[in-house]
Amino acid sequence: MTAMDEHLLEVDDLRVEFGRGRGTASVLNGVSCHVDEGETLAVLGESGSGKSVTAQTIMGILDTPPGRITGGAVRFRGEELLGADEERRRLLRGESMAMIFQDALSALNPVYSVGFQIAEQFRFRRGMSRRDAMVRAAEMLDLVRIPNAKQRVKEYPHQFSGGMRQRAMIAMALALDPELLIADEPATALDVTVQAQIMELLDELRRERGTGLVLITHDLGVVAEVADRIAVMYAGRIVEHADAATLYARPGHPYTRGLMDSVPRVDDAGVGGAGAVLRPIPGLPPSLSAIPHGCPFHPRCAYAQDVCTDEVPPLREVGAPDHRAACHFAEQFVAEGPDRPATQDVVSG
Amino acid sequence: MTDTAPALRARGAEPDEAAAVDESAGRGGLWVDGWAQLRRRPLFWIASTLILVLLVMALWPSLFTSVDPRVADLALSGADPSPDAVLGRDLQGRDIYARAIHGAAPTLTVGLLASLGTVLVGAMAGLVAGYRGSWVDGLVSRVGEVFAGLPFILGGIVILTTFNQPGRIVGEVRIVTQVVLTIVVLSWPLAMRIMRAAALEISQQDYVKAARALGAGPLRIVGRHILPNTLAPVLVFATIQFGVFIGAEAALSFLGIGLRDPVVSWGVMISEAQERVADIPQALFFPAAFLVVAVLAFVMLGDAVRDAFDPRGR
Amino acid sequence: MREPVLSVRDLVKHFPVTRGVLFRRTIGHVRAVDGVSLDLAPGETLGVVGESGCGKSTLAQVLMRLIPPTSGTAQFEGEDLFAKRGAALKAWRRDMQIVLQDPYTSLNPRRTVGDIVGEPFDIHPEVAPKGDRRRRVQELLEVVGLNPEHIRRYPHQFSGGQRQRIGIARALALRPKVIVCDEPVSALDVSIQAQVLNLLSDLQREFGLAYLFIAHDLGVVRHLCDRVAVMYLGSIVETGTAEEIYARASHPYTQALLSSVPVPDPTVRRARIRLEGDVPSPADPPSGCRFRTRCPKAQEVCAEQPPALGLRPGTGHATDHPTACHFAEPPRLVRAE
């Protein structure tokens, strides 16, 4: 067992840039987070927030160039990964950490059967015979609740439906029983009924196997259902971090609050209910090659003051333990709760 | 917190994110903007200058040389470069420089006309096939396959020997026309395929759907939406084919069925020089150099034009 | 209900499945739209929801006269829509426009924003005199919340949300009575999506537009729509006001769909109706009720008789809106804290 303060995965002040010269895009600007065994950390963000780059950097599959890691550390059970050689990282990938992608169709090779692709890992990493590996592959398909796994193991990716392919990819990721699973928008491309099945499956497998799960997503609904802790990203920074209940009950960052006010909901609760006016965040996310001075959110923030344009607010503890927000006025937001409009025009009509 | 700055309404509140973008882009439509871009590219000016020189050479060869390219002096066979003949002499003792200058006209005529013809015929067929689809597409594609299936040399021999008895002396205009037509007939399916694929892809795009929903007619859809978006691959194809066609013309000449004496072309010169490369390297080297420069100039021009007419590249 | 501006009856669109290169033969049909009827009143928003492959986008394209219907009728202001030809068809296009899903492929990359938004006036020159067009285009850009100075820019210089606004401006140019919105916000980020949804609401109020709003996101549909039609494998399985659908859904598919949508609130734990498997292929739909292969309530009768869309007073569980299920009943448990 590791020491108490040693996490399964710890990301510390990670910085990544793309390109060089005047057009340099600062994609990650000091991202810190951690995951423990059996827990789900959701990384929530819109496109361009840096959530996928975070996942790729942790896995060591970031394309460099154009990407460039300019600082920080990624520690897996205390072992620093960014400095490790490729041999060691390759060993860890699959054995200790695995990744699920959004697009299962392009993640599976169309010319090999699904079973063959899962079995490959058993053959090359565990030295199993071809036959034994196929038996294990069928077991894995069964584990991800694919009916008739024994028959379907010989089928090709195009013969699987979208939901099935996603299950097959989960089976492949879990084949070597990794301790950490990173899921990058695992259900975004799927229909809502299938999406619910996949999220349920991931949640169950995590609980059964004690896997640490990093869930990268933009969907506030999915996050609310499965996450233990949530990190909200904006312009390459984590702007808020809290356990799920706290974050939804008392968002401390106006961006988090704006996101929640932007989602039209199916149920009665919340601002997005029938007939209500959505309260969108005005403007657009900043270009990563020209992140605004001070708080990166200030041009879109209804509460921005002079201090916001001058100083970058640090991610600091606000109120509850482990609730951190990067806003100069976070305490006030936390005290007010979420039911106050985030933009003022709604109040004035 | 109620005294904070008033919020912007979402409508009309988008910051000017494109402010950093070059403001000179987008003055007045595709052609004007494209020309404005083109004018700023050094590549375009280099290529244009080279092409201009080549054209002058083709139109008024006497500006560059006063030597008759047909005068042969066997006594001087394979002479090295000298003040008398600056690039040396070929096997039959003819002035290579003079021949290269006089060869520009037929070479460029064949290259340009064949490229133009191939692209016009092929692109038109591809556009119609890709846009109309159904049986028109089937018909054009099958006919194209038949022509593409003919080996070039065999097809060339069949066509050209049908019109001319081997060894017969034919006029310059006639033989050039025949060679150009032969090349077009045998090569148009290539351009057709490229255009068809591009047109198929573009006609599936949502902006074509939107235009149809607005009531746009087929001419407008093809002219405004499909053609400008399919031009790039065809343009690249045309510039590359220019070089290929000059080579093809040389191959036909080598077989004795293409351009031939008294017509001089770079292809004819290269094919004549092949037999004695070791003894008279200059007879191969200089026409080849002219050919390379000409091909490069057209490739550069095509490249510059393609980039200039793509707004995304600015 | 007021006299509908658009009235669709028994609309069917089948795509032939063909084999062979030289001699094509038809080996089957994809039943993309299979008997859809709906009415759209002036100024209202009718939402059409369903999962991928349910035929909702095909429906939009047929109604826009982009592809011909296989059978069925549609009336626009009392006139037969599918009989329109030539000048009448072109004139009708001014009344009905479409906003497409993908903001990246719906704008021609080689034309300026001015060209794109002005194209409707080029095609229908009678709407705006030539000298007036530039001003009209700039007005439109302003209406959709874009800087009218940007008339000379190209689409790639705008973000996804801004491009969608350009697409909306183009659809708005001819002052249509109906706009078909085919997944207009599904490609956008949450915060941008809300901006565009609010824009659509504002425009509806300002111009009295009727929307046929096609989407897969049930939250978005609830937010924007007055009435909702739920589609499954080419047919409407349930239709009613937003209130009727979201609070009192009676078709098991609608109920399952609603319960599958995650709610952004960790304190709400809803009972989920779990559907097994995936949507069957529309080329080979199940007999009887299309939904029976995934339905938790399926009985023998479901395989034999396709249930008609209608009120079901006889079942003992009276429903107040049309539904296509032999065993329709109000939801028992939607929510458990």
Automatic annotation (TrEMBL), chain A:
Spell out the Gene3D superfamilies in the cross-references: P-loop containing nucleotide triphosphate hydrolases (3.40.50.300)
Query: Where does the protein end up?
Result: Cell membrane
Q: Which domain of life is it from?
A: Bacteria
Q: Which SMART domains match?
A: AAA
Which PROSITE patterns does the protein's record reference?
ABC_TRANSPORTER_1, ABC_TRANSPORTER_2
Membrane topology field: Peripheral membrane protein
Biological process (GO) annotations held by this record are: peptide transport
Entry GO MF terms? ATP binding; ATP hydrolysis activity
Q: Which GO terms describe its cellular component?
A: plasma membrane
Q: Name one Pfam family in it.
A: oligo_HPY
Keywords, A to Z, come to:
ATP-binding, Cell membrane, Membrane, Nucleotide-binding, Transport
According to the entry, every stretch annotated as the ABC transporter domain falls at 9-260
Please tell me where this protein is predominantly located.
Answer: membrane
Q: Which family does it belong to?
A: Belongs to the ABC transporter superfamily.
Q: Which NCBIfam families match?
A: oligo_HPY
- Kindly provide the name given to this protein in its UniProt entry: Oligopeptide transport system ATP-binding protein
State the species of origin. Actinomycetospora cinnamomea
UniProtKB/TrEMBL annotation, chain B:
CDD domains the UniProt entry points to:
TM_PBP2 (cd06261)
> Which domain of life does the UniProt lineage start with?
Bacteria
Tell me where it resides.
Answer: Cell membrane
Domain ABC transmembrane type-1, which positions? 104-302
Q: Which terms does the UniProt entry file under GO BP?
A: transmembrane transport
Alphabetical UniProt keywords: Cell membrane, Membrane, Transmembrane, Transmembrane helix, Transport
Official protein name in the record: Oligopeptide transport system permease protein
Keyword S-adenosyl-L-methionine carried by entry: no
The record's annotation in Pfam families points to: BPD_transp_1, OppC_N
Similarity comment = Belongs to the binding-protein-dependent transport system permease family.
Cellular-component GO terms for this entry: plasma membrane
Transmembrane ranges, per UniProt, are: 43-63, 112-131, 143-163, 175-195, 234-259, 284-305
Does the keyword Secreted belong to this entry? no
Originating species: Actinomycetospora cinnamomea
Membrane topology, as annotated, equals: Multi-pass membrane protein
* Record-linked PROSITE patterns: ABC_TM1
Q: Which InterPro entries match?
A: BP-dependent_transpt_permease, MetI-like, MetI-like_sf, OppC_N
From TrEMBL, chain C:
Looking at the Swiss-Prot or TrEMBL record, what is one Pfam family this protein matches?
ABC_tran
Q: Which domain of life is it from?
A: Bacteria
Q: Name one GO molecular function term.
A: ATP hydrolysis activity
Q: Which Gene3D superfamilies match?
A: P-loop containing nucleotide triphosphate hydrolases
- What segment(s) does the record annotate as region Disordered? 307-337
Q: Which ranges carry the ABC transporter domain? A: 6-258
Tell me the GO BP annotations in alphabetical order.
peptide transport; transmembrane transport
Q: Which residues form a coiled coil?
A: none
Q: Which UniProt keywords apply?
A: ATP-binding, Nucleotide-binding, Transport
**Family listed:** Belongs to the ABC transporter superfamily.
- Protein name as annotated: Oligopeptide transport system ATP-binding protein
